[in-house]
Amino acid sequence: MKLRKVLACRAGALALGTAFLVAGTIGAQAEECETITLGSAISLTGKYATNGVHAKNGYDFAIQKIKEDGGVQIGEKCYNFDVIYYDDESKGDRGATLAERLINQDGVQYMLGPYSSGLTKAIAPVTEKYQIPMVEAEGASRSLFNKGYKYLFAVLSTSEQYLASAITLAAQVAEQNGKSPSDVKVAVAVENDPFSLDIRAGVLEDAAKYDMKIVVDEKLPRDLSDMSAILTKVKLVKPDVLIVSGHSKGAATAVRQIGEQNIAVPLIAVTHCEAADVTGNFGKAANDILCSTQWAETLSYEDPIFGSAANYETEFKAAYPEYKDKKVPYQTAQASAAVYVFKDAFERAGSLDKETLRDAIAETELMTFYGPIKFSENGNNIAKPMVLRQIQDGEYNVVAPAEFASHKLNWPRTPQ
Are residues 245 and 268 in the same domain? Predict the structure, then answer.
């Protein structure tokens, strides 16, 4: 790994372990391929570092898998991807500056996204200005896709969908128990950032459809380290549903303090459970919490490079043993899917020209281990649904929507 003062490194120099050692003709062909250089300003330090590293690992894993598969075929030539990374330190202004550097100094013509909606929002005007195609995997805010950007594409479902399904689930549970959905009381606590505010908007919109009452509507503290005051209010008003969104740090704080304060809300839904490793860090306190996810290894998606969703999980853990005893985060899987989109688009474009490539990305209709990918005119993925997993005895099991469920919902949740 080549280190620079701004913590840049090239993915091609990373050693991914013996799981990726290939021999014979395939290895020889891969070494003969030319290079397509991608760029990414991503959070390796700061409050988003945990998920930034997950995303980077997903990018690097996909790059190696594509290399093993013979690379990117454009005409009679083959290419391997390489990435120049810079650490944006979880700061939007720094991310924008680094995007300018990648384009103007490093000559990058194709970009992978940063982590988080806020940082994607900071970088997107730069890539748009220079007409640089960016396929991003970690910015879900719907506000990214109403700006008229033509060079921004996202493989993930937009943020208003993340926990809205929890409201639908709560309505179904109410009806199953002889009550009206309008009797359901909802508490909402989210980070004051674009992603979480969109989640809040989606939850409030869906709650309004059922005429549910919002009894708590709070912003998490800026440092995401203490939501005890909000939980005290939750205890007093006794909602039927508690919604929390605050990325990895917010998820960790929520699960820890829900356990400490013995919060007995029947249905609790949180984002970023896997990335925060709430089962590993908090044990039984995480039981029966619902976790939104873009992807799960139990889903029946597959493709020719990564195989099934389950196979992706197995091979990724072999390459990155630090994930051995936990679920591979969906942030990692969708990062790999973004790289796959680039491969597919380059091959359909038959060219390195960035305008031709942009048009090919816009026409993407691709089934992947992560799910179907098809972009709207605004650049968001309109083909893939969100799912809810519930932590049941330490395991993440899909419980909603019904067509994807592998297990029944445990309800009501009681303090552990």
Answer: yes
